[in-house]
Specification:
By secondary structure, this protein is mostly helical. It contains 15 helices and no strands. Helices cover 78% and strands 0% of the residues.
């Protein structure tokens, strides 16, 4: 019955209902046929027995009325009354003939046909003798009427009457036989219906049990249990334990158990990837070969999603690390999508800005080496803090080179004997210490040759660079109220 097991559930149920319906149709058909047969038998009983018995009763009554009228003719031979009686007798004879014709059509047995033929023969003889009696009565021959009445009319009348009684008995007998037959057929039909009904019920129960057993095998359990499992799975509850002990491998419950295990494996891999991501283990991936079909596509999608996320993150981390160590990498040329492309563009922009900063720094250094002290970086090329750095470089160079230019100008003028005036601009730090050297020029313009000699000596003497002698010495020399000796003593 493997072919039946492989049928769809709807086909099995429909075939079961069809079978039960066929059983009901067969039982009903047999019952209807027997009912029609009983109806036919009832019709036969009425047409062949009941109605003919009524006809026989009418014929008997008509015959007796004929005898009564014949008797009255003998007892009261008055001519006027005799004519009435003769007319009545003729009408009764016609009626009996008509009933006899109808009765002859209802005979269905040999016995009934035999009695009917006996009646017909006796009746014909009776009518002949009765005709003679009526003719004699019409002529008023009362003695002849009496003779005929006691003779042939009496003899054939008794024979006809006996034949009618025999026909009644035959019809009653036939009715009894038919009733017995109908009763036997009814009892047989009842037994047949009971037997077939019981057989049909048993067969229907057997089919129902077979279908139930087959469906239960196909489902692997009660449908309510299967529905309960399906609802739990739909609600995301995978903690249930499905008992598949003794269940067919191709049953629904085994398939659902396999489905639950597959989903559990999918959930487990999802939790694995989530935990790995939270723990910073960005290289962790799920084993997609553990899954099949669309579930495998889901896991592959997870892995590819992580690759798509973590690949750009790793590149970004590497670039940030290299930049933090001063190792400026080349720009990123790989293609990224969406927000990752924004990260790539930002990193490339950062690289461009840093490279521009380095280039301007190198340019300023090279210009300084080449003595191009007026060279400055274009700070407008930079933004934010990078711009501040370039502005700081330029300001630093201005702060260094302006005093140097001033010093170079003063030295150049001094070398030409053009003693410039005192420096009035403000300088900071070490640049401010250079300023007093040029302030001694005022001594040269005002002082004695000794002062000038001492000033020149100390300006170019190694003692100027010894410890802290520089500051007091220069300060003394720059004073107009002290002599060189006083400065040395100081």
């Amino acid at each position: 019955m493997k072919w039946y097991y492989n049928l769809r559930l709807s086909t099995k149920l429909f075939s079961g209902f069809i079978t039960v319906a066929l059983i009901a149709i067969i039982i009903g058909g047999i019952g209807v046929r027997n009912i029609y047969e009983n109806n036919a038998d009832d019709t036969i009983v009425y047409e062949k027995i009941t109605a003919p018995l009524a006809t026989l009763q009418d014929m008997t009554c008509s015959y007796l009325q004929i005898r009564i009228n014949v008797r009255d003719m003998v007892l009261d031979p008055e001519e006027s009354k005799t004519k009435i009686k003769i007319q009545t007798i003729k009408e009764l004879l016609t009626k009996i003939d008509t009933d006899a014709v109808a009765l002859g059509k209802t005979n269905s047995t040999m016995e009934g046909q035999s009695h009917f033929e006996n009646f017909t023969d006796a009746w014909q003889e009776y009518k002949v003798e009765l005709g003679k009696l009526l003719e004699a009565g019409a002529r008023g021959k009362d003695d002849e009427v009496k003779v005929i009445m006691k003779g042939g009319v009496h003899t054939y009348g008794i024979s006809a009457f006996d034949a009618l009684n025999q026909l009644v008995d035959a019809k009653v007998k036939q009715a009894k036989q038919k009733a017995d037959t109908n009763r036997a057929e009814g009892e047989m039909t009842a037994r047949f219906m009971i037997i077939f009904t019981l057989l049909g019920a048993c067969l229907a129960l057997a089919i129902g049990f077979f279908i139930r057993r087959n469906v239960k095998f196909q489902l692997g359990g009660d449908p309510l249990d299967v529905v309960a499992i399906a609802r739990k799975v739909a609600a995301g509850d995978l903690e249930m334990e499905i008992d598949i002990q003794g269940k067919r491998d191709d049953s629904l419950i085994v398939a659902m158990s396999s489905m639950v295990e597959t989903i559990r494996a999918l959930v487990a891999d999802a939790e694995l990837l989530t935990h790995a991501a939270v723990s910073g283990k960005l290289a962790s991936r799920a084993d997609a070969t553990r899954h099949q079909g669309e579930f495998q596509k889901i896991v592959v999608g997870f892995n590819e999603t992580l690759d798509a996320i973590i690949g750009p993150l790793n590149v970004a981390a590497e670039y940030v690390d290299r930049i933090s160590k001063g190792d400026i990498p080349s720009k990123i040329t790989e293609n990224y999508q969406g927000d990752f492309n924004e990260v790539k563009l930002n990193l490339n922009n950062c690289i461009d800005n840093i490279n521009a900063l380095i280039a301007d720094g190198d340019g300023l250094a090279q210009a300084a080496i080449e003595g191009k002290l007026s060279t400055r970086a274009n700070a407008a090329r930079h933004q934010g803090d990078f711009k501040k750095i370039m502005v700081g470089f330029n300001d630093t160079l201005d702060a260094i080179i302006h005093p140097l230019n001033m010093a170079a100008e003063y030295v150049d003028r001094i070398s030409k004997g053009d003693i410039p005036p005192k420096i009035t601009e403000s300088y900071q730090g070490d640049f401010n210490e250079v300023k007093p050297l040029f302030m001694t020029l005022e001594l040269i313009r005002k002082g004695s040759p000794v002062s000038i000699a001492w000033t020149i000596l100390m300006a170019y003497s190694p003692l100027r660079f010894v410890g802290n002698l520089k500051s007091p010495l220069i300060c003394c020399l720059s004073s107009t109220s002290l002599s060189p000796c006083d400065c040395i003593v100081a």
